[in-house]
Design a protein that fits this description.
The protein is an alpha+beta fold. The protein has 18 helices and 14 strands. The strands form 5 sheets. Strands 3-4-5-2-8 form a 5-stranded mixed sheet. This is 2-oxoadipate dioxygenase/decarboxylase.
Length: 468
């Protein structure tokens, strides 16, 4: 395909990759994450400040707490870690996004419905593209939270607005054919030849850059009456990085330091409260969306200037992945305001009650017959080491809280009207890919590690986990 006239990029030769010259998926993923980070830092300078402060906080936490601070990921991983967020308008666009991320070993995981969020419902459903395997996550844990507009939902859009929105979205093209062809080749072959890899990274990064094409002011404003997120998706002819998120080891310290640097943060940190027990799931916050200069097309056809506030700088602190039972307890504790009394105060209690996922390693040199086959006994006696598995996914309430804290208006929703049914099965069908269940992924990691550990300890029947 010939590149569009607006692109400074030129095609590169496309030799067939060989094992000795292939750039593998994990390296493509790392390069893609760095390229997007560089791009976003140029577009949103406050993001660079956020990364700098995150790194300072992480260094201080390591200096203060030592190796214990790296229990949920070493400093190299935490420093490199990013999650991004993008928004698309149609199932076809989502399917194309899946192809681009599939090329770098990132697959749809989890289903999030932000249309039920309080106090500000958002007319999108979402998934996160991320690596699935623990080793791949350790290599580069890049994730992209990807939201899809639901114009069929009558609580937000009437039939007339839906029709006009569909027509608008059908007239745009987010990803060039060349990029999609390279993506398919990379996913099929496990990587790309170096020249093709360079081209893929350049094209993919450019696809998520903020466009300078004029925004139709009247159309954008009409969608904004429904939702600022709807306007950001359906009011422009391209997509872009909505936010890019570094990981920090002490999010409360970062929140305070960003304020000291003169950067306005949203009102609160989303997710579980700060306390002296185990860190679980995910805590998130952000600086407020900034006014960015944009060009607008006026009703008379002229082009003028203005600003939009749609992009913000998010930061996250990750904790232990909870089981379904753990998640139920989390929701109950958070909803009731009885966090301190309901949530376990130690990792051992989380393990004993089957509330969190752990990875197990055998210490066979400590074996002195007889060896118990009870999990807690093996852990307590030092024959098994239980390391918490880090939570790699997202919380719909927290995501909606971040979105809502950065909206330019309250939007409108008529709860009495019909909702469009959307779930993980629907999403899997329209993109032609499995939407993976995060709980299944964590359970598989934990069970595989326990099986290996049992074999190392010489337990042919495995380890008893009943009651755990």
């Amino acid at each position: 395909m010939t590149p569009s006239p607006s692109s400074p990029l030129t095609p590169s030769p496309s030799p067939s990759p060989s094992p000795s010259t292939t750039v593998p998926a994990h390296e493509l993923r790392a390069r893609f994450a760095r390229a997007l980070s560089d791009l976003y830092g140029e577009e949103v300078p406050a993001y660079t400040t956020l990364v700098e402060v995150s790194q300072q906080v992480n260094a201080d936490v390591i200096a203060e707490r030592g190796s214990d601070a790296e229990r949920l990921g070493d400093l190299a991983r935490v420093t490199a870690e990013r999650h991004g967020a993008i928004r698309v308008g149609t199932p076809e666009e989502l399917a194309q996004v899946a192809r681009v991320f599939g090329a770098v070993g990132m697959y749809p995981t989890g289903f999030y419905d932000l249309r039920e969020a309080e106090p500000n419902p958002v007319p999108v459903v979402s998934t996160a593209f991320r690596p699935l395997d623990g080793d791949e996550l350790a290599r580069n844990p890049f994730r992209v939270f990807t939201s899809l507009l639901v114009p069929e939902d009558r609580r937000f859009f009437d039939a007339g607005l839906e029709d006009r929105l569909r027509t608008f979205l059908a007239g745009r093209r987010l990803f060039p054919d060349e990029l999609l062809e390279l993506a398919d080749r990379a996913e099929e072959g496990g990587g790309l030849a170096p020249a093709d890899a360079d081209r893929f990274i350049a094209l993919a990064t450019a696809s998520f850059a903020l466009s300078d094409e004029p925004v139709d002011r009247t159309w954008y404003a009409e969608l904004e009456e429904v939702s600022s997120v709807a306007a950001d998706i359906g009011g422009v002819t391209s997509t872009h990085i909505n936010h890019l998120t570094p990981r920090v080891l002490d999010i409360d310290a970062l929140y305070a330091r960003m304020g000291e640097r003169g950067i306005e943060m949203i009102d609160r940190i989303q997710g579980p409260p700060r306390w002296d027990g185990p860190d679980v799931l995910l805590r998130q916050t952000s600086f407020r969306a900034l006014s960015e200069p944009r060009r607008f097309r006026e009703a008379d056809g002229s082009v003028g200037s203005g600003t939009l506030r749609v992009r913000f700088g998010e930061v996250e602190a990750r904790g232990i992945a909870l089981t379904r039972a753990g998640r139920d307890l989390y929701d109950r504790a958070l909803g009731s305001g009885e966090w301190e009394s309901l949530m376990p105060r130690t990792e051992r209690e989380l393990l004993a009650r089957g509330l969190a996922f752990f990875r197990f390693t055998a210490v066979p040199e400590k074996v002195a017959a007889p060896v118990s086959d009870d999990l807690l006994t093996l852990v307590d006696e030092g024959l098994l080491v239980a390391e918490p598995i880090v939570y790699e996914d997202f919380l719909p309430r927290s995501a909606a809280g971040i979105f809502s804290s950065n909206l330019t208006g309250q939007g409108s929703v008529d709860a009495s009207r019909d909702a469009a049914v959307r779930d993980a099965a629907w999403m899997a069908e329209v993109i032609g890919r499995t939407v993976h269940d995060p709980y299944d992924l964590y359970a598989a990691q934990s069970e595989a590690s326990l099986e290996r550990a049992a074999q190392a300890l010489g337990l042919p029947e495995g380890v008893r986990t009943s009651g755990v």
